[in-house]
Design brief:
3-stranded mixed β-sheet, 3 strands, disordered C terminus, alpha+beta, HNH endonuclease, 33% helix
């Protein structure tokens, strides 16, 4: 099972310090485990919890959107 080491919504890398914290949420699916960073989890909580957004299939935003989201 593959694990994606970046947030699929904003491409923020998941560091070793993040592994021991509780800020990132995990989403388990047929493609593996996908971790979504805290800010993206909070911003898209309803979509994630209701299954309206599959983070494993989410495409990364354009680079200019990453800069504004951080």
């Amino acid at each position: 099972m593959d694990t994606i080491l970046r947030c699929p919504l904003c491409t923020r890398p998941r560091t070793a310090a993040d592994i021991h914290g509780l800020e990132w949420s995990s989403h388990h699916g047929p493609g593996g485990v996908v971790f979504v960073c805290g800010p993206c989890t909070r911003a898209r909580l309803v979509d994630l919890e209701c299954g309206l957004l599959d983070p494993a299939r989410a495409s990364a935003p354009a680079p200019d959107r990453v800069a504004r989201a951080a």
